[in-house]
Amino acid sequence: MTGSDDVFRARLLETFREEADEYLETITEGLIALEKSGPTPDLLERVYRTVHSLKGAARAVNFREIESICQNLETAFSLVKRGEFVPGVDDFDLFHRTMAVIKSLLQGERPDTSPAEINGALRAIPDREKTERSDFAGDQPAEQGSPPRENHAYGAPGGYNGGEQGTDRSTVRIAAHKLDRLTAGADSLLTTRLFIMQRIRELEEMMTRFSLWQWNHSQALNDLQMIRRKAFGEEKAAIPPDLVLPFQRAVEFLDYNREFVTNLQHDLVTHLRFMEIDRSALETSTSEISDLIHDAALLPASTTFAPLSAFVREFSRTSGKSVDLTIEGGEIEVDRRILDALKGPVMHLIRNSIDHGIESPEVRRAEQKSATGSVRIRVFPRSGSRVGIEVADDGAGIESRAIRRTAVENGVITPEEDASLTDSEAIWLIFRSGMTTSRIVTDLSGRGLGLAIVEDTVSRLGGEVTVSSAVGKGTAITLTVPVRMATLRGLLVRSERQVYVLPMQQVKQVLRVRPDSLTISRGRPTIRLSGETIEVIRLSDALGIPPSDPVMAEERPKPLVIIAYGAGQIACMVDEVIRVQEIVVRPLGSQLTSVRRIDGAVILGDGRLALVLDPLELIQDAMQAERSVSTSALPWEAERRILVVEDSVTSRALLRSVLEGAGYRVETASNGIDAFARLKQHEFDMVVSDVDMPRMNGFTLTEKIRAEGGQLAGIRVALVTSLDSPEDRERGKAVGADAYIVKKNFEAEDFLKIVRRLTHRREGEIQG
């Protein structure tokens, strides 16, 4: 195959993958709807035709594995259409596994279930043989000279080509990266507009200087007239002959100069007026173009949230629960980039609802609820070009007492702070990192991240999170975000000799204070504002910039910018607040992505570069610094002892290296019997154990630790294993493990966070 053929095939496959993704999404939605409402004719026909279209598309690009799977799936649905087969729960499980296999094949990955196994399971559906002879014959290649039985060309008559997904000929498909480039180009027009506005300001300054010249010229005009009369007019006096001509030329030039400058001023005024008109026209045009391009990036919210139905079905079954997902307002359009950013947080909220909110079927029946729980995603418009995305469940709700207890155990708040919180305020602790009410840590939940990730993502999009909950009735969390990723408005400030930009979305207030009027709390300057005590930091100090001049006590007022991000806020002292203007944030490049507190850069109208600050990191660093000042290292921090139980030499060395690198004292054992003997001889704070080991496995070791009591009572146990089935996780929970970590998802940083949290909790229990 030639190079051009390779390129053509690569493009063809890329187009096929994009089209196949749409087909898979439609089929998955149809399967969910069929399982809920039963095999209605319209729904069956839509799924059947979409499978048929996917088969034809796979055949066109010679993707035989997908074509074969679709053929067998299509045959199964033909049985359902004729009423010869009614799929049950296990059959729908098979259909969803089929979708997962096709998706893996599309992405070039190895599926969990082989295509041959899926085809065998689909062929085993009852009465398949009866229909195979009649249906499959139509899909064989036509014999030479005979007309084709079926036309698989896209859009061919008689073949379904995804018409229900939209065949409006007024629309075109555009690659996402091209749309992103268009959007970036439209945003760049703003920079050009800023340049023009800067030129207009410079012209206005020139006009001011001309006005000053006019005033000075008018002062000298009387003197000039007198010189003219004395030198050349009726009051002509005696002037040396050799000075008459030069003097006359000088006076004539001054007359010409006055006329020239007056005309130049008139031209500048006219030019400035027309330039202002052009600027206004450019602003209107660029705003319209920018709005149109940003509108082109809007997609119905259902395109992102509808596919989550399959995730809810799979995850709820893994959790031993029955949960339905409903989506309202999916037709409301939101910027594709915002939807992509929110997909993870919404999945996190759904997982929390199923894992922590929705009760088991037995508990729900006992509470006179439907055995099937409900999770609802509701998308609704809000004022100010914003949209609300509510994730609600009808589960157990949030119990403030459990939240308070966990927050104190994990060191998120102190007992004194807990005593001052109301129940409604305590609910907001779920947004703090380190919060989880799950008793066991797994790769799915209980890692202590709470909803901090959700709030962080929404805040970065310029949105906010609200939560409401009623015990026994359910929880609703609402994400309010902009409809589109518009250009930002930023506050330009100067600190030392550098100009910075603070996003206006996080600027709460700007005021001027005298530095000597600040109060000192725990060794740090603070200000009291609206009943709240806010820490004050110098922006230059927060950024680690040394002062250009010696620091001296100042009495004159200085600008103070209050920035708020989620639950935290600080006051930044700067040297000057310049102005508020629209900004287009430029990335710093891959070399500078790890630079903290800096989110990007903008080009100002005068061509200077200004750095865009990250309010979240400024606040986090200030709070972290406060924590380091207020709490010293505890003497028992480095004395914590951990027993690592692992039969694999490599895994044992890895775990020991990670833990010792974090300052823990580590001993090792190669099996459960050796480990249990060491536990009875020495005192340990925690056990990190494999499960699958000779002589005594990790489950049995955990059971014996929990049954022993005495010296081993309260010791924390984390199981780190390659066994990742739901049954294994449940058994780990049943035997009393505090954490169940799957090796394929092992991350050293996350592992250490879990260890710190569990050992801190144990220390708190000992001291209590």
UniProtKB/TrEMBL annotation:
The modification Phosphohistidine is found at residue 52. Residues 641-758 form the Response regulatory domain. Residues 5-109 form the HPt domain. It catalyses: ATP + protein L-histidine = ADP + protein N-phospho-L-histidine. SUPFAM superfamilies: ATPase domain of HSP90 chaperone/DNA topoisomerase II/histidine kinase (SSF55874), CheW-like (SSF50341), CheY-like (SSF52172), Histidine-containing phosphotransfer domain, HPT domain (SSF47226). It comes from Methanoculleus methanifontis. Pfam families: CheW, HATPase_c, Hpt, Response_reg. Residues 125-136 have a biased composition (Basic and acidic residues). Keywords: Kinase, Phosphoprotein, Transferase. This is histidine kinase. Residues 156-165 have a biased composition (Gly residues). It is an enzyme of class 2 (transferase). Residues 122-167 are annotated as: Disordered. Its EC number is 2.7.13.3. CDD domains: HPT (cd00088). It comes from the Archaea. Residues 282-485 form the Histidine kinase domain. The modification 4-aspartylphosphate is found at residue 690. Residues 487-624 form the CheW-like domain.
